[in-house]
Amino acid sequence: MKEEKDEKILINELENKRVIIEPFESDEINSQDSVIIYREAEKPVRLTLGFKILLGLGIFLSGINSVFFFYFIVHWRQEVTNITEPFEFTKKLNNLLFYSIILLCFIMLVSIAISKRPFNSALYRLGVAIGVLVTAAAFIFPRFKGYKAAFKIFSVKGHFLANGDYLIIGLLILVMALLMRYGYKYQSNSDMTI
């Protein structure tokens, strides 16, 4: 009985040494994958031709508009000092918000192209950033003099708490970003089972 127990311990020790010494074939495949944004080492998904075309077009167009974000930031001070009417200032704020969103969308699309996966951690994190940015703008923009909105929340004597249009859009973007997060987790779990 004791010999049988000693034999089992010896076999277990040999198995542990084999696991440590001999790598599995799957370890070699994973170690050759390139490290993607946020240190992801995952297998790429085969993207369809139509998706690749739309992805390339989206990267191209959002990349061109992202250049305007940097132009806008560089010339922000000059443009703000030349403003005479409050309406022009709120127009500049809306432009800043728009170009910021386009820049974040550009980064999202590039992360999809690099990782070759429709869902990745950068995608939902940047989606949350866009949602928070738009939701914050819904509350911050109405504080500036001359700001007007079509849908006002808690409006009293010309002042209002939030721009309802931006608030609804921001919350919808946050919901979509969380859905992307679930898609990313589902994709990661399905990759693990395969």
Describe the structure.
The model is unreliable at 15-40 (pLDDT under 50). This protein has one domain (47-193). Helix 3 packs antiparallel against helix 5 (86-115). The chain has helices spanning 2-21, 25-32, 49-74, 76-81, 86-115, 121-140, 164-193; strands at residues 152-156, 159-163. It is mainly α and 194 residues long. It contains seven helices and two strands; from the N terminus they run H-H-H-H-H-H-E-E-H. The protein is flat, with a radius of gyration of 26 Å. Strands 1-2 form a two-stranded antiparallel sheet. Keywords: Membrane, Transmembrane, Transmembrane helix. This is DUF2975 domain-containing protein. The chain crosses the membrane at residues 53-76, 96-115, 122-144, 164-184.
